[in-house]
Design goal:
Layout (H helix, E strand, L loop, with lengths): L2 H9 L3 E5 L8 H6 L3 H5 L7 E2 L2 E4 L1 E6 L3 H7 L3 E14 L6 E15 L4 E6 L2 E6 L2 E4 L9 E11 L3 H6 L57 E4 L4 E4 L2 E9 L3 E10 L6 E11 L4 E3 L7 E3 L4 E9 L12 E15 L2 E14 L20 H8 L11 E5 L5 E6 L3 E3 L3 E10 L5 E8 L18 H5 L17 E3 L3 E7 L4 E10 L3 E2 L4 E6 L5 E4 L6 E3 L2
Parallel strand pairs: 2-12, 23-32
Antiparallel strand pairs: 1-4, 3-9, 4-8, 5-6, 5-10, 7-8, 10-11, 10-12, 13-14, 14-18, 15-17, 15-19, 16-18, 19-20, 21-22, 22-24, 24-28, 25-27, 25-30, 26-28, 29-32, 30-31
Protein name: Trafficking protein particle complex II-specific subunit 65 IgD3 domain-containing protein
InterPro entries: IgD3_Trs65, Trs65
Organism: Cladosporium halotolerans
């Protein structure tokens, strides 16, 4: 069979259409069988695309040769689908776009006999392919990305030739080795007689002509492309948040649905993996989960720090692999599958910091005796999950904060406060909630004047220490302040602080200011119980 001649007859007067229909029930082959070829060219296409989607095409090729001749030629042909990203700039009204530059982002090559339908209509034969291309994200940053697709049909050679190349190639038998062009120099007393080996193969000096080009043996491939470039956007946005605990790290994956999803987005599966570490899912949801435009889905994972990979002293950053499968729906008959893989770094060097608490400088000078005593008192929280404890020197005053480990979104959460007075006098306190959002900022001293040695000893250490970095979710305070006392010596007092959760994730209660109503000393408590808000 003369493949070149058959392909030239096949491509003469033929054209290729690349269609990206907007509905899933569009079938070009069915329209051609019904005798409506013009309806195929007027098919409604999609308005925009999503990155990481599996785009479904319908490629229609019309040729003047018969259906039997096309069927015989298809085993010798290849179909190549490519996606190219451009920086599109809107040009006037409508959906037209002027593209600048081209960046190849995806390509697939298949045999022309895969997933093909042949239709004979009048004097022409139609070939319909329905390939699928995974539209990955481009490696470069584009301001307004737009993607267009191309299709090439070319000759792949004879099937017999393709199968013969799979055999193991051996050197031919009884072939002489190339001659040594310097063999006569072995008899030279100054060269060969001294015992040195002189050898230059004749293959190194023989002129070797390059192989002839094979382009002239086959006809030029047939090309087709979409009529325009499609604006392309992400279907959802992902970001990570981390909260360090004593023996683990809580990772929160935030998935925000794009407002361009006119229907719904069904999240089929999410996998969060770190090589060499144990990752536990804290999500009680059952897949799939349906979300709409503007929704935010928060998924929580616990990363164990006790794994050997996490305990390595030379390894502080770990690479997490996030794989997400989803289905975006535009209407009842239009759906597209999305599969994305995202790699992000997880910093496992974070640890639970020990916060030293000390009283601030009293506002009144009449309490000098208590001022020196309070300046030496400090407290720190031990390694635990749900208890935040503040104690002064010799255990005079002990505050304990407890809370449930989990709660529901848009519900009330209560922090229980217990105060034990182990001093030898009556005390009065006040608790004031202060929800401040700061990220590792240092509080400047209130007083800029030079202090004496005695005043320096009683200066509040909180004026020179760092606040804990807060990256949790918002909560509403329902109990702005609480009064404790008069609390006699040896007495115990219990009260509660109520909050209302507004979103899912790791809650951030801000800070609680403890005020001594007698000496007017203040103490900011930033280490509060860790509470996780779950979706309803």
């Amino acid at each position: 069979m003369d493949v070149k001649a058959e392909f030239e007859a096949f491509s003469k007067g033929a054209y290729v259409d690349v269609l990206l229909p907007s509905t899933g029930d569009f079938d070009a082959a069915a329209l051609l069988r019904n005798g409506n070829p013009e309806e195929v060219r007027r098919a409604q296409t999609r308005k925009h695309l999503f990155f990481d989607e599996k785009s479904c095409f319908q490629i229609v090729l019309r040729t003047p040769i018969s259906e039997d001749a096309v069927r015989k030629l298809l085993p010798y042909l290849d179909l190549t689908i490519s996606a190219h990203a451009t920086n599109a700039v809107p040009d006037g009204a409508g959906n037209s776009a002027a593209a600048s530059g081209k960046h190849d982002i995806a390509s697939t090559k298949t045999l022309a006999t895969d997933n093909v339908e042949l239709v004979s209509l009048g004097e022409h034969s139609y070939v319909v392919w329905k390939p699928v291309l995974h539209l990955v994200r481009p490696r470069i940053r584009l301001q307004r990305p737009a993607v267009y697709f191309t299709a090439n049909v070319n000759v792949n050679g004879s099937p017999a030739t393709v199968t013969s190349t799979t055999k193991t190639q051996y050197l031919p038998s009884f072939e002489p080795l190339p001659a040594n062009v310097l063999e006569s120099l072995h008899h030279d007393p100054s060269l060969g007689a001294s015992g040195r080996q002189i050898h230059v193969s004749e293959n190194r000096v023989t002129k070797v002509s390059p192989p002839s080009s094979q382009l002239e043996d086959f006809a030029r491939p047939m090309r087709g492309a979409t009529k325009r470039a499609f604006p392309t956007v992400p279907a959802f946005f992902m970001r990570m948040g981390y909260s360090a605990m004593a023996d683990s790290v809580i990772a929160s994956l935030h998935v925000e649905i794009s407002p361009l999803v006119t229907g719904f987005l069904k999240i089929d599966d999410v996998r969060f993996e770190i090589q060499g570490m144990d990752v536990e899912s804290l999500n009680g949801a059952v897949w799939p989960q349906r979300s709409h435009a503007g929704d935010e889905v928060v998924l929580l994972y616990r990363i164990d720090k006790s794994a050997p990979a996490a305990a390595s002293p030379t390894k502080t950053m770990d690479l997490a692999m996030i794989t997400m499968k989803a289905t975006a729906s535009f209407d009842e008959n239009s759906r597209v599958e999305i599969e994305t893989q995202w790699q992000t770094q997880v910093d496992m060097s974070h640890s639970t910091k020990t916060m030293p608490y000390k009283w601030s400088r009293p506002l009144s000078a009449g309490y000098g005796a208590h001022r020196r005593k309070a300046s030496q008192s400090s407290s720190s929280r031990p390694s635990m999950h749900d208890i935040s404890q503040m104690s002064s020197k010799e255990g005079e005053i002990i505050f304990t904060f407890t809370a449930p480990p989990t709660t529901k979104q848009n519900s009330d959460v209560t922090i229980h406060v217990q105060c034990v007075n182990r001093s030898n006098r009556t005390r009065k306190f006040a608790l004031v909630t202060a929800q401040r959002r700061r990220s590792s900022t240092t509080i400047k001293p209130r007083f800029e004047k030079r202090l004496s040695s005695n005043d320096t000893a009683v200066t509040a250490s909180t004026h020179h220490s760092n606040l804990q970095e807060t990256t949790g979710q918002k909560v509403l305070t329902l109990t702005p302040d609480v009064r404790i006392g008069p609390l006699t010596a040896g007495a115990c007092f219990e009260t509660t602080l109520r909050y209302r959760t507004t979103s899912a994730g790791i809650l951030n209660f801000g800070t609680i200011r403890l005020i001594d109503l007698e000496s007017r000393q203040t103490l900011d408590i930033a280490e509060l119980p860790d509470v996780i808000s779950l979706e309803q």
